[in-house]
From TrEMBL:
It comes from Coprococcus catus. The keyword Zinc applies. It comes from the Bacteria. Residues 943-1102 form the Helicase C-terminal domain. This is Helicase. PROSITE patterns: HELICASE_ATP_BIND_1 (PS51192), HELICASE_CTER (PS51194), IQ (PS50096), ZF_SWIM (PS50966). Residues 60-99 form the SWIM-type domain. Residues 642-819 form the Helicase ATP-binding domain. GO terms for molecular function: ATP binding; hydrolase activity; zinc ion binding. CDD domains: DEXQc_arch_SWI2_SNF2 (cd18012), SF2_C_SNF (cd18793). Keywords: Hydrolase, Metal-binding, Zinc, Zinc-finger.
Length: 1107
């Protein structure tokens, strides 16, 4: 037994328990806390000094019997002790502290403790309670005031403070005061002032001043530490009574005092001043001293200059001046203040320019008294400006400008001098600024570079400045001055770009484009488009005139010139031919700019576009045997395939995984077989004895799917004769000699690479590559092999046309229609890099318009409303201590290595770095994959087994994927230990056995299927499972999604739950983030979302390693 909170609750009244609990939660109110053994009873005795909210101290003592869970006795010096119904609130407080400490000591053995650790533990436990002391129960809550006193000594401003309620006490050390506030400490200033220094204790207005003090003290202490560390290493910080105010701090402090009164001390005299937000009314007086001199006097006032605000003290009022007042009055007042005077003497000669330049501005803000002086004769004359422009040679514009005041004329190239009399500096600067926005002063040029021109300002060989001057500057000049233009200048014009029209027609299997314009100079059109492409606003014609490039028809011509890779010769001719597969792209560009350019499409072009857009309404009949099998969206996909083939193009069937891409291709092949039979019959009926040779098609797929294709064709189209190119090299060679006897040949990428020479003389109607991401690298032998096959029409099947890089899409299209996405170097520089690195929306739109007609992509959410839901969850596992130590050591080592590498070293060592990243991923899975003698356990493996057991208990079947076959070995051993039955499929599983394993799992009750992600992530139908576990995340989500869709596909009748096992605070959490980023790369081109970088940089790797 032991003393518990319930013991204390029973020993005190409700009110005293609540009060005691409040005291306990504010640890600083319990001081000198000690526990000892009572020498008489040999039981624990607790003593402490307990403070009330007002700071009154009470000596408190309680004796307890832990074994009997009893309070033996208590004593307290508080006046309520003898009247309390039970123990008083102070006894409650120290008992609760005792229980809290005993709990801490029980959790952390005493032999491992020292005083420092115990204090820290108590501090953090109190913080974690989320409760801290406030002044709620204090009698002074919201009553403490801060009273500032502003000092001015020489040019220095500072402020000190008093604190209190009715009576104020000087704060002798603001550094100590700030510490008291930070620590929420109790402090006594005098007999009548003692309080806990918390914001709640101060009045609302004083809290603002408190925040100001705390911020300035923080800056002061930081500055002192910096100086101490760098210069005065042994200097100690001294008490601070006055806060020095920087210009910024002056503004901050005085803005807090707006509308309030303030004590201001100047030259040992203190006065109370008001702080107002308005301009002062100063009296400015002009008097005649004699016939030739004048005296100008202004009221006495004191200037306080902040960082951005002008403050004036006059007659016990401190004014925050407006910006207009500051601009006009500050130079004058500051100069007088610097000269320590209130007056200035002006001669007759000085008064005229002074009146026009200075005095008129001062008048607007003062009570100006002229004392009978008539100033009408000193009104400055109005300035009249004239600008002279010339164009003496092809690359030069010159300018001169003058200001005329009555009979006097001044060149604006000549600086204003006091001897000039009055000159309107404001207007002259305005005109001069306008000129120098485009022209350079001739005087500023070096003598050898300065051309001989008749003018003070020049534009020399700068077409951009010339264009901007003609477009913007010249109209502005007319607003400011009278402009005189030479005859040469009049010949220079800015022309609007003439509108163009485009005609598109189909002829002999090609598209012909005609560009027509009555005023467009064809010989300069390439240069014009090049300037437009570089986002220039103009093009300088050979005539010297400027062509304004803001005509929208130019944007259409520029887009087509880039998208179609038109040469300068093509553009200069005004007519060009391009491949037929550019039809959809041209139509998309013209349609999206329908209002910008006139276009004419001939009827053959319109028919072609209509066929491509209205696939669902096409006349291609679904074979009778397939009609009851195909869903509506699959029929549309089949008709799209037929249309693409009929038009002589190629395409990507990119439907989401599990939507039946295989079935749509089988329907196409069956259609081709039936069509060949029909043609043979037609020939027979016309007495022709030459039979039409049957079309032979070739399917290339991963070796793991060869038998799957054969099985699917046998199931859905048994009349199609298939030939599997398998066996030894000699056997495969023999099979290929009989290829014409079959409808479909099926081979793998690996077999095709080996047999490619045997395909030289073979010709195929359709060539289909499945899992087309196998050729995502166009430099591989697999990509080169499929591209070398002779075939009429090519299709590619993949649920992920883009996994990581846009170059993967280029590789697939290079197989489908060579040259369609240009040479790779051009594709990379003009599309891939701008899209990925620069987020270039124009390039992204162009790529979308090019490829979209040749990609059929539907998502499950769009077409399979009846497909069960797919629920995805990330399951986090906290690594074991031993596992965490190994992971952290390896991660820190890799991070350090990366930080020390230069960019060039990073590029050359990427393979090694990726190997280290793989090592980190394996440590997340199970350190035994790296360290043979490791026995510290794997949190993720334990979590995985628990998931499997829970799923089995609920009658579920599980697919478990991992990147590492070595991890599958570990899981396999654990399943055997737990007596859990399973199947396993990895790269060593033969193709024939794969099919048997899949069928067996779907049909029997074996609950677990272990699958290598690479070997079994595609081409399998495993709808018998309804739970998918991804043991380790991969860099892009596409591979994992493909694996998940082995279960979440047509035929699935249950909700599929996907668990992604993630080791907490490791690289795996960052991989999840990268998966989302990489998904955007594919969505950008296949839909219309944003694109992100697809390659890990050094900075990204370092960010991944930082947890």
């Amino acid at each position: 037994m032991a003393i518990t909170r319930m013991t204390v609750i029973k020993a005190a009244s409700d009110a005293d328990y609540r009060k005691g609990q409040d005291i306990f939660l504010i640890d600083k109110r319990i001081r000198n806390f000690e526990t000892d053994i009572n020498t008489l009873t040999h039981t624990p005795m607790i003593t402490a000094t307990v403070l009330d909210a007002d700071g009154t101290e009470h000596e408190t003592q309680v004796s307890i019997d832990e074994e009997e869970s009893q309070i033996i006795g208590s004593l307290c010096s508080c006046p309520d002790f003898y009247q309390a119904q039970g123990i008083c609130c102070h006894c409650v407080a120290i008992l609760l502290k005792y229980i809290s400490r005993r709990h801490i000591q029980a959790s952390f053995p005493a032999k491992n403790q020292n005083r420092i650790s115990q204090n820290l533990i108590e501090t953090y436990i109190q913080q974690s309670s989320g409760i801290h002391y406030t002044a709620e129960s204090s009698d002074v809550k919201g009553q403490i005031e801060l009273e500032p006193i502003l000092h001015k000594q020489y040019k220095r401003l500072s402020v000190d403070f008093k604190v209190g309620t009715h009576k104020k006490y000087v704060i002798k050390d603001l550094l100590e005061f700030a510490r008291l506030v930070r620590e929420h400490e109790l402090f006594q200033y005098g007999k009548n002032l003692k309080f806990f220094h918390e914001p709640e204790a101060f009045t609302p207005e004083s809290r603002k001043l408190l925040s100001f003090i705390m911020q300035r003290i923080e800056e002061y202490e930081y500055h002192f530490r910096y100086v101490q560390d760098s210069t005065y290493r042994f200097q100690t910080i001294k008490p601070l009574r006055e806060l020095p105010l920087s210009p910024t701090a002056i503004d901050t402090f005085l803005n807090l005092m707006l509308g309030r009164t303030l004590q201001f001390r100047l030259a040992d005299q203190t006065q109370t001043i008001r702080v107002l937000d308005c301009d002062p009314l100063l009296t400015l007086s002009l008097k005649s001293e004699d016939n030739s001199t004048y005296k100008l006097t202004i009221d006495n006032c004191l200037i306080l200059s902040g960082a951005s605000t002008f403050w004036i003290l006059k007659d016990k009022t401190l004014y925050r001046c407006s910006e207009n007042f500051r601009k006009d009055m500050q130079p004058y007042l500051t100069e007088l203040n610097r000269q320590k005077t209130q007056e200035m003497i002006l001669s007759e000669k000085q008064l005229r320019p002074f009146y026009g330049s200075v005095l008129k501005r001062l008048q607007a803000h003062t009570d100006f008294q002229t004392n009978g002086i008539d100033l009408s004769g000193y009104e400055p004359p109005e300035a009249h400006f004239s600008i002279y422009l010339d164009h003496p040679s092809d690359q030069i514009f010159s300018c001169s400008a003058y200001a005329q005041y009555n009979e006097e004329t001044f060149s604006l190239a000549t600086p204003i001098s006091p001897e000039d009399g009055f000159r309107d500096a404001t207007m002259e600067n305005k005109v001069l600024t306008a000129i120098q926005s485009y022209f350079h002063p001739v005087m500023a040029l070096e003598d050898e570079k300065a051309p001989e021109v008749d003018g003070d300002f020049i534009i020399d060989h700068d077409d951009t400045a010339s264009f901007l001057f003609l477009e913007q500057g010249l109209p502005h000049f007319y607003e400011l001055a009278e402009v005189f233009i030479s005859s040469n200048m009049k010949r220079v014009r800015i022309l609007s770009a003439p509108k163009a029209a485009i005609g598109v027609s189909v002829s002999h299997g090609l598209l012909t484009l005609d560009i027509r314009s009555d005023h467009l100079p064809y010989d300069e059109l390439a240069g014009i488009l090049n300037s437009y492409r570089r986002r220039q606003k103009y093009y300088k014609l050979k005539s010297g005139e400027f062509l304004k490039l803001e005509n929208n028809s130019l944007s259409v011509l520029s887009e087509l010139a880039d998208g179609l890779r038109l040469s300068e010769k093509d553009i200069a001719n005004g007519q060009m031919t391009v491949p037929l597969y550019r039809a959809s792209y041209i139509d998309a560009v013209l349609t999206s700019h329908n209002n910008d350019i006139q276009s004419h499409r001939d009827r053959y072009f319109k028919s072609l576009i209509r066929d491509m857009k209205s696939v669902a309404d096409s006349d291609y009949e679904v074979p009778d045997a397939m009609k009851p099998i195909l869903r509506d969206y699959q029929k549309t996909g089949y008709r799209w395939l037929c249309t693409i083939a009929h038009l002589g193009f190629g395409g990507i069937l990119a439907d989401d995984m599990g939507l039946g891409k295989t079935l749509q291709i089988i329907t196409l092949l069956e259609h081709a077989r039936l069509e060949a039979i029909s043609k043979t019959v037609d020939l027979t009926e016309t007495a022709s004895h030459t039979a039409c040779p049957p079309p032979v098609s070739l399917i290339v797929c991963p070796s793991s799917l060869v038998y799957n294709w054969d099985s699917e064709i046998e199931h859905f189209a048994p009349n199609l004769k298939t030939l599997l190119i398998t066996g030894t090299a000699q056997e495969r060679q023999e099979l290929l000699t009989h290829y014409a006897d079959y409808d479909v040949l099926i081979t793998s990428y690996d077999m095709l690479k080996r047999d490619i020479a045997s395909y030289d003389n073979l010709h195929f109607h359709y060539q289909i590559i499945d899992e087309a991401q196998y050729i995502k690298n166009h430099r591989t032998q697999a990509a080169r092999s499929v591209c070398s096959i002779h075939s009429v029409t090519r299709f590619a099947l993949t649920g992920t046309p883009i996994e990581n890089r846009l170059s993967e899409l280029w590789s697939i299209f290079e197989y489908l229609m060579p040259g369609f996405l240009y040479p790779y170097a051009y594709f990379r520089s003009e599309l891939e890099q701008p899209i990925v690195e620069n987020k270039d929306q124009i390039a992204a739109t162009r790529l979308q318009q090019l490829v979209r007609p040749f990609i059929m992509r539907r998502l499950k959410t769009d077409v399979l409303k009846e497909l069960p839901d797919k629920l995805e969850h990330a399951v986090y596992a906290q690594m074991t201590d031993e596992q965490n130590k190994l992971y952290t050591a390896n991660a820190l080592k890799l991070q350090k290595d990366l930080e020390q590498q230069s960019d060039s070293m990073f590029k050359t060592s990427k393979i090694q770095i990726l190997a280290e990243l793989t090592k980190l991923r394996q440590l997340c899975c199970d350190p035994s994959l790296i360290y043979q003698n490791y026995h510290g356990g794997s949190a993720k493996l334990d979590t995985c087994i628990q998931l499997i057991e829970n799923a089995m208990a609920g009658g579920h079947k599980i697919l478990l994927f991992s990147q590492f076959t070595s991890m599958l070995d570990v899981i396999e051993r654990r399943l055997k230990t737990e007596h859990i039955l399973y199947y396993r499929l990895d790269g060593s599983t033969k193709s024939e056995q794969r099919t048997r394993l899949v069928n067996a799992f779907n049909e029997n009750k074996i609950p677990v299927f272990l699958i290598s992600l690479k070997a079994g992530g595609t081409g399998l139908n495993l709808t018998g499972a309804d739970i998918v576990i991804h043991y380790d995340p991969w860099w892009n989500a596409a591979a994992q999604n493909q694996a998940t869709d082995r279960a979440h596909r047509i035929g699935q009748t249950h909700t599929v739950t996907v668990y992604k096992l993630i080791a907490r605070h490791t690289i795996e959490e960052k991989i999840l983030e990268l998966q989302e980023n990489k998904k955007a790369l594919s969505d950008q081109i296949l839909s219309e979302e944003g694109v992100t970088a697809s390659q890990l940089t050094k900075e990204e790797l370092l960010q991944i390693l930082q947890n």
